[in-house]
């Protein structure tokens, strides 16, 4: 049965490179098969662009910024276009949610939620720019001077987005860039490009002028590298891994362009015993620990993969956590009743298996999972499935505790005092997000203030707001997305000083 599923089918190629208002193939004719991670077989083919395609896209964006109407388009018109895109996203919610599920492996419901969040982001940035004034008046200390600070678009923005949240991460960059009046080129992950392609089509349908939005589907080492080094790119925004992000920053430094990086995290979920003092509190903390670690099979930059639990409740908490984790329904994301889909690729599956093997070799105790599941009708043997895994008795020297796994793996560490909990939470080179669970409000506020992470949840995990900044400390990156700071990333600040009564200075005697 499974051999029959793996049989190759002919799939037609799509024109997925969009330059100056035209859809096209790669200049050299290269293509790439896009695999369904639940079956490990191709279901479509896209254009595989290279450096030459990137050059054309950047040139189109440059012309559209320097000569086109978009940067001078009134703010009200830009905001109206963003709202039209949001309406189109709502209209196409089912289609886009299904496409995101099939491309990235997540459940259809997760895909639908992503589409909702993308629509929210477009509406937020539309509202943000429409509510702004003409600039900040600066008191120059003289009635004869008019001084203002204004914000202008950066110019040509290059965007490189990850494979885990293709549509969502693209929107966090595209919406503020357009709201600010920029033009852009975007390179989605080569393994999950389809919903970003769909988003560009929606921008086209909404009436965005040709050349403002350009997409090149292709690999990071050619297209992404060209984006980072190109002299005509004014800003590069990258979301992805630390190693790749470092390369982007190094290449961008040569032309001194603006850089925004979101490079992942190793996120602590700190549970104090008092949060578990009641049955309701215990149930909630366990349930949220599952959500923190296993949503989208742990392939989330803010995944709560490090459970740091107070020693006095450790055994009960971990036992119940492992029991529930072992019952998570694993299968293809498009199947009814499935709660968790496959990993995105064979590479990610191999990486996850390697982390678990090293943890067990270093003394971790396996409480559940730790292997590929048996195949079923909704879980083909060829798919990249891995069981939700709980590793107990972990410590900070373990590779699985220090490095970002990006798989369904939860490690358990323990503490006995608040200071020890804080030290564990901050003992990471990353600093993207973290959570603290406690019924003591004073303790919660102390921990939140002292945790070195860009987002700290108290008695919750994972929610974000488009009006609140997102980003991290340390090696989690530089800059912020979302919120007013997310818009500011795509702007340059200019001071305009006007002397209303100019007179000679007479600094020089002659």
From TrEMBL:
Catalytic machinery residues: 262
Cross-referenced Gene3D superfamilies? Aldehyde Dehydrogenase, Chain A, domain 1, Aldehyde Dehydrogenase, Chain A, domain 2
Q: Which family does it belong to?
A: Belongs to the aldehyde dehydrogenase family.
Looking at the record, the residues that make up the Aldehyde dehydrogenase domain are 28-496
Copy the pathway line from the protein's UniProt record: Amine and polyamine biosynthesis; betaine biosynthesis via choline pathway; betaine from betaine aldehyde: step 1/1
Alphabetical keyword list: NAD, Oxidoreductase
Q: What is this protein called?
A: Aldehyde dehydrogenase family protein
Q: Does the keyword NAD apply?
A: yes
Q: Does the keyword RNA-binding apply?
A: no
């Amino acid at each position: 049965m499974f051999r029959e599923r793996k049989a190759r089918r002919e799939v037609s190629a799509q024109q997925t490179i969009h330059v100056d208002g035209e859809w096209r193939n790669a200049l050299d004719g290269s293509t790439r098969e896009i695999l369904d991670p639940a079956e490990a077989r191709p279901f479509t083919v896209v254009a595989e662009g290279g450096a030459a395609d990137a050059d054309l896209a950047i040139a189109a964006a440059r012309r559209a910024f320097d000569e086109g109407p978009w940067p001078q388009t009134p703010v009200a018109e830009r905001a109206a276009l963003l709202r039209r895109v949001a309406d189109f996203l709502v209209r196409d919610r089912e289609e886009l949610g299904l496409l995101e599920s099939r491309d990235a492996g997540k459940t259809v419901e997760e895909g639908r939620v992503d589409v909702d969040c993308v629509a929210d982001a477009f509406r937020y940035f539309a509202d943000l720019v429409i509510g702004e004034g003409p600039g900040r008046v600066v008191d120059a200390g003289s009635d004869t001077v008019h001084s203002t600070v204004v914000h202008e678009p950066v110019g040509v923005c290059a965007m490189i987005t990850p494979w885990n949240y293709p549509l969502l991460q693209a929107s966090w960059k595209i919406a503020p860039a357009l709201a600010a009046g920029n033009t852009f080129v975007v390179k989605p992950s080569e393994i999950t490009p389809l919903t970003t392609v769909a988003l560009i089509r929606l921008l086209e349908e909404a009436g965005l002028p040709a050349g403002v939005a350009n997409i090149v589907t292709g690999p990071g080492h050619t297209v992404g590298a060209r984006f980072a080094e190109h002299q005509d790119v004014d800003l590069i925004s990258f979301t992805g891994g630390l190693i790749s992000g470092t390369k982007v920053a190094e290449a961008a430094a040569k032309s001194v362009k603006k850089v925004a990086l979101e490079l992942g995290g190793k996120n602590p979920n700190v549970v104090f015993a008092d949060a578990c003092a009641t049955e309701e509190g215990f149930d909630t903390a366990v349930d949220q620990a599952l959500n923190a670690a296993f949503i989208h099979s742990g392939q989330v930059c803010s995944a709560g993969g490090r459970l740091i639990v107070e020693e006095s409740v450790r055994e009960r908490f971990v036992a119940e956590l492992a029991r529930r984790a072992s019952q998570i329904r694993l299968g293809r994301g498009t199947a009814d009743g499935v709660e968790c889909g496959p990993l995105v690729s064979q590479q990610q599956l191999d990486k996850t298996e390697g982390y678990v093997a090293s943890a067990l070799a270093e003394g971790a105790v396996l409480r559940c999972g730790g292997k590929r599941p048996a195949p079923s009708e909704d879980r083909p043997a060829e798919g990249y499935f891995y069981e939700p895994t709980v590793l107990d008795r972990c410590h900070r020297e373990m590779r699985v505790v220090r490095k970002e796994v990006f798989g369904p793996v939860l490690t358990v560490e323990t503490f006995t005092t608040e200071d020890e909990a804080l030290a564990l939470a901050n003992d990471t080179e990353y600093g993207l997000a973290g959570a603290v669970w406690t019924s003591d409000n004073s303790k919660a506020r102390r921990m939140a203030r002292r945790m070195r992470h860009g987002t700290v949840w108290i008695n919750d995990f994972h929610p974000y707001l488009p009006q609140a900044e997102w980003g991290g400390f340390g090696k989690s990156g530089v800059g912020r997305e979302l919120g007013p700071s997310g818009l500011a990333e795509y702007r340059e600040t200019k001071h305009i000083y006007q002397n209303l009564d100019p007179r000679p200075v007479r600094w020089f005697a002659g």
